[in-house]
Task: structure prediction
Amino acid sequence: MKALTAKFKMSPVEMEFNDLDLVTNHSHIKNYYTMQYEDMADLNDYVDLVTMKAHFRGTRLASDDIAFFAPPLSSWDTEILVNGSVEGPVSNLSADSMQLQGGNATRLRGNFSMRGLPYINETYIDFNARELITSGADVRQFFPPLKDITAVHTELISRLAFQGSFTGFVNDFVAYGKFQTNLGNLDSDINFKTSKDVPVYSGNITTYDFDLGQLLGNTIVDRVTMKAKVKGEGFNFTNLKAAVDADIQQIGLYGYQYQNLKTEGEMNRKFFNGALTVNDPNLDMDFTGTIDFNSRLPIFNFYSEIRNSDLKALRLTEDSITLQAKADLNFSGSNIDNFDGTARLYDLSLFKNRNRVEFDSLSVYTGTENGLKTLRVRGNEINGYVQGSYSFMELPNAFKLFLNKYYPSFFQQPPMVNAGQDFTFAVEFGQVDKLIGAFNDDISGFNGTRIEGALNTLTGNVSLNATVPSAAYQDFGVKNLVLKSTGDFSRINVSTSLGEVLFQDSVMFRNPHPGQFGKDTSLIKLDLQAEDTTSLNGFYARLVTVGDGVKIHFLNSSFTVNGKPWNMMAGNEVYWSRDFLTVHNLKITRNDQSITISTNEYNPDESRFLVNLKDLNLADIIPHGLTNTLIEGLANGDINVHDPLEN
Result:
């Protein structure tokens, strides 16, 4: 006590402080306070035998001072502004017309009684709130066990208004009322208690446009309007036993507001059994399934029937796609690498822009065949498998390992691959052109395509064979492509047989022939055919990758312009780095004519290209039809080109 003024009256049965003004280390108590007892000796048992009557006006009461009588409140660390009347011993307090302010944002008007202090966990509370304004941070401050429930982010509730009642203990109560929060509104009739530290709860919850996703820290779901019955034990997954029966009027998933959902689900001893019915204007479906988490890997058994779905309206695709299908999934696993079982999609009817897509079924199977891990994919227009020792999650690092061996200057060595890759694969397409075109306007063809190969990161062997009758991407296409490649960690040899390379249905190249790749060096052969001649021409080059770019050395090559052959001589270099492009002695000749391109070798940052023309016959190089004016003559001289890559 630091200061006390009052009109004091004392008798053998009472101490009265009228016009009270009491200052302690942390609190400031005002107006009126009396202590009544049957005998002065009762002061030795203040908690139970002394009846207090207090009328607070502008009182500031520190939680540290309350903690003198109720030690568990020592963690509150707040000051409470009190107005109202309180009567009773510490162990049986009741309050009328109380107004409290505490924490950072908590304000309360209401009546309450508390029996059992100073032991807060054994205190029975009967509380009727005419108005309670608080925040998630304050609630976690006053009820610290909420901090341990990490699945619910109560700290994100910046404003919470409550009208209703709370009856029971802090660990065994019934709460009824209406909540208004920054995340939305809800009504509750909840019974909550803990038994041997395991929460037990039941009741009804009604939400109105409540942002459930934010509260649960989930970006998939957002606002929900629903009525739900909940009954369960525990929040921890290992001891969770809960059942939910919900009628969801509206819920947001991936940005779309679904309507009219009914769901039932039960989790018991790490076994989930649930059902879902959706009667949304853009989705009509049923789903039933179980998940067993008791094994080393979860076991899934799902069945679903989609009677109608508009994927564009559901914001799952950009194009107008509707789908009807049945799905049957029976597998175990936690990721794509330990997937074991079957996943089947059948009786499928798929429409894009009201046109039916030729796609009826698809099944995925994984298991063991002849002692080898096997993945098989089967559909009406696709058939393929992967067999051996493989890890799809490690596959990118496996490819990086080979690229590092071929081009160490460009590709860094990847982290150690956890599982050695040693597998074969093959995939064969049927009439997939219409199927591909239904989903991608840029890609076409691939009917009858077959791709097969093998990869072994233990021995360094790799092979890839492909047969593509016809394929195109945007304006570029190929016909009759046969590719064969074999290699090891030192190099890879690639040979091709290619009918044509097309641009907008015009022939660009014939038989481009990549050669060898390895140790930062690639030998390239490219045969060409001009539109106005049947003679084959070819570029031959050696590509050398270095740390900051690539060096290209053109070997003896030839090509045709306007039906006349031109030659490119060896002894040149094009150096394309991240910062500059230099050209040394790139010379193209025809008889006495020549074009030489070079840059300033002493200042590669100059970005100036020198083009030297010698006896260049303009009629030989100007394409036919470019102009109606006849252009002839010989050109000699130098042309300076500044910043061609920038301007």
The CA atoms of residues 453 and 530 lie 34 Å apart. The mean pLDDT is 84. Helices lie at 46-49, 63-66, 136-142, 212-216, 395-406, 433-439, 618-621. The two ends are 83 Å apart (CA to CA).
